[in-house]
Task: structure prediction
Amino acid sequence: GAVVSQHPSWVICKSGTSVKIECRSLDFQATTMFWYRQFPKQSLMLMATSNEGSKATYEQGVEKDKFLINHASLTLSTLTVTSAHPEDSSFYICSASGGGLAGETQYFGPGTRLLVL
Amino acid sequence: EDQVTQSPEALRLQEGESSSLNCSYTVSGLRGLFWYRQDPGKGPEFLFTLYSAGEEKEKERLKATLTKKESFLHITAPKPEDSATYLCAVQAGGDSSYKLIFGSGTRLLVRP
Result:
């Protein structure tokens, strides 16, 4: 149980193009989804938090217009990197949690590696 | 400011050599402390959640414990397949977003 998938697993694109990454919770309803990026040998950096049907909450320093997040259903969230540039190349990971009153476990997807040429 | 510090940064063990990883935290009201394992090029894999001081959880060769200031991940008789980066994270009680605050991780290498 608690499986989260991401698609695609890796993507190469040209500078200036947009890339969409999907995150799906396969066997549970995700009240909240989170998007992280991770640089080599570093820990995860939270980019934004999204709740189904609501606008995403972005962390300080993350450009809202560049990283568009949509959480249209309880099983799907998408991250679109608009007008991608080489500095956007990174490992993007999503996580999902079912919500509740106690500390809620986040289950992570396998990640998407983005390379912008 | 909520903060998580993990030590050591890297740890090399011989197969069968037991050891512990440390996670010290400062948080305004702990809602939960989480341990994850991350293999290279993959997303973190959930291991344990601890909610209150004194709590312990076990899974195979791993045992996680929690005090009011830190958590330990004990690895008993590790095998090479336990090699990975182990991440500790906390959820603050005053934060309604349920976001996690991660430590920088401990890279564990178990040699045969």
Observations:
- The interface with chain A takes residues 31-34, 36, 41-46, 49, 51, 87, 91, 97-100, 102-105 of chain B (CB under 8 Å).
- The CA atoms of residues 4 and 110 of chain B lie 24 Å apart.
- The mean pLDDT of chain B is 94.
